[in-house]
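@channel anyone free to eyeball this complex?
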Amino acid sequence: MITINEHYLKLQASYLFSDIAKRVAAFQEQNPEIEIIKLGIGDVTRPLPRACIDAFHKAVEEMASEASFRGYGPEQGYAFLREAIAANDFQARGADIQADEIFVSDGAKCDTGNIQELFSQDIKIAIPDPVYPVYLDTNVMAGRTGAYVDGRYQGIVYLDSTKENNFVPALPREKVDLIYLCFPNNPTGSTISTAELKTWVDYAREHQALILFDAAYEIFIRDQSLPHTIYEIEGAKEVAIEFRSYSKSAGFTGTRCAYTVIPKECTAYDRNGGRQPLHSLWNRRHCTKFNGVSYPVQRAAEAVYSEEGKTQTRELADYYLHNAASVRRAMQDLGFFFVGGENSPYVWINGGRDSWDFFDMLLNKAGVVCTPGAGFGRCGNGYIRISAFNSHEKVEKAMKRLKDALS
Amino acid sequence: MITINEHYLKLQASYLFSDIAKRVAAFQEQNPEIEIIKLGIGDVTRPLPRACIDAFHKAVEEMASEASFRGYGPEQGYAFLREAIAANDFQARGADIQADEIFVSDGAKCDTGNIQELFSQDIKIAIPDPVYPVYLDTNVMAGRTGAYVDGRYQGIVYLDSTKENNFVPALPREKVDLIYLCFPNNPTGSTISTAELKTWVDYAREHQALILFDAAYEIFIRDQSLPHTIYEIEGAKEVAIEFRSYSKSAGFTGTRCAYTVIPKECTAYDRNGGRQPLHSLWNRRHCTKFNGVSYPVQRAAEAVYSEEGKTQTRELADYYLHNAASVRRAMQDLGFFFVGGENSPYVWINGGRDSWDFFDMLLNKAGVVCTPGAGFGRCGNGYIRISAFNSHEKVEKAMKRLKDALS
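replying in thread with the prediction:
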């Protein structure tokens, strides 16, 4: 008899975005004349940079003639892209990462979801709260948690990110083996300083733990003192894997390209305590279960590193940061506590009430859609996330409406 | 301490293609004047159909302006593609598959590799020999096998595909729960009749087993009597998942698009014997660990179903089948036993000697590269695979050289 992986049955159905959609639809039906402004989802709205479009077209045309046609590429990505990544995203910042330590993929969601396959079943896992749900759900599916009780999975060490710790979790009291961190953070928009990140790297080195560092929002960092990559921290190459994406940096959410960095000296342990390089394990997984990213997409991603591409992606991030600044000003004027929006497209706002009540108030009084923080974990209750991914005009209009309605 | 998934250590390093590359390089060094002709790997060489190129360009340009830009798409694929697939690949053949039973992905390798996550650890798995190694390796990684002993993993039921059974394995004597089948077959090029496929569907229904049917080479079927999809068989929707790909049908090996069909009534069982729909389990996996296929790539795939696209993909398959016929004629003339090449781009040839000896003979006497059958499993010993993926000119030249050298 073919039997299922019963761990899937532990997963909680997420009604977050369907609940939002239902409330929005009901409001629109009662108020057909109001133009609803959506600042909820984390999806970009601006077109691809022209440098990427031009490179994309050129590569598509290469696929049209036998002489320049490309079949299967290297599973790890083409050298032209891996070399551009290593030089621009790492070596230019003093982080000694080589091209063959980069694995190009079709998304950071896939990579952050699949990476847990490399580890044994009985490791102790630390996951922030609030959090991007993929880290948690993929470990539930793999059977590394117990049941879901009182809003949390048993067996997981939750790292609370709260106002008290400025949304950078403290080191766990119990010993953990695998640590998920994301900075600039989704959903809070908070950042981590070099000194704070060093405490995590030191913890990992001391406890033979591994850090999975999700830096998908790196492009939004403007504070010169903040680390752009975990490999700016001494010793991180032995204990950290980093995930990056072109989704937010170049508008690739619908185009699909990302990458993962696994330094050659980054290791985990076998049952005899022997060091096992994670680079070769991930390479084996990548070659067995993945067949590389579409060639024209890799050429479009490479264009991010051209002179025009660098200027255009910087402008793209600045466009959204301009919106985030508008949101921050409005929240300041309204007297709400908030964090984020300076080095991040997200602003995390405390409304002094239940997340959903806050959500409903914004929708009903101003026709503005946000995301209730409770959808990201227990520590998100009381908060909402406002996203900067929309046009200047719509964000300005939304903030004016909020100020008129709430002040 | 962060510990690894020790099952990865059971994996056998595959030296097949690197061994081939070494022997080819050595031969070339000794014979610099000889133009080596490669009929080894299963990668296409002809450009993308013009209909796909045009649709690809159009969609790239849509990404260049805000009004037509697309961000995150549905993880399952856009409706335009899923509907075209359901109508053309299934309903047109009398197979009642609906658009929402199709999951678009970036490759059949990914899907055939990932699907095993849905099942419990202790199922009994049947895998053909010779075989595409992904089916086997992904189950090794997941811990569903024992050690590798005498060329085979313990705990797997191997389905021998031999001359005696015309390369269509017989039903297993012991009861199995999960069955991998691939027709037209890689590497043998053999096909399965409707009656033979029905015996497998009946077996699965009787034993509450599930069939994973890999139909990546469906486009090459020319024999009117052969089934194009397993859903042409009555009752298959309850017990079979089918994998398809544009890699070979439209030259997408470097462009990346494929799909998996999971009918709504296809189920596995929970530990209480309750039926659990695999559609919802896979949907959960797909939404958690995957973020959809690149939008322009989906538009290029959709163009396969336009009138021009249908004509051009048919011509593309015919081009390679013309080569396969040349290979068959040459092998006939040389007096070798062979199978495949009529409804498949692969010809599977018995040389009456060890696979690697046969490989060396073709390389040294004719400068032609093939793939030694032993690389696909124990039953492949004595055989080589010759691929039709090359130009008419090169295949003709290779066959002439073989005839001159060996007859």
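from a first look: Chain B is about 35% helix and 15% strand.
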